[in-house]
Amino acid sequence: MKLTRPELWRKLIYWLRSTFPHPDRDITVRAVNIPDKYWDSTGYTDIINGNFRIVIHKKSVFATRIDTLIHEWAHTLTWNSEEDHNYKWGIAYSKIYRGYLLWRDENGYW
Hints:
alpha+beta, 3 helices
């Protein structure tokens, strides 16, 4: 099934929320233009009103936006870890990414 990029983006976020939910907090995703002074940033995660907000750089290449979303989603699931990219984050990231590849291929989204 051929989807437009916005359709695939929405389906991916829905799939992440239903397959890898955070047990205690909501996760929102926003695509925005990140200021040029953060030239190396494709996205980040923060907490707003007790819930997670993932911000993705709107001008990034679509495949990079997907990779960044999965990367940041793993951060939401391991937020209390002592380091940003420790083994807990790596395990969460690999589970989400592998699940994404299977979901994408099973549904013919790529």
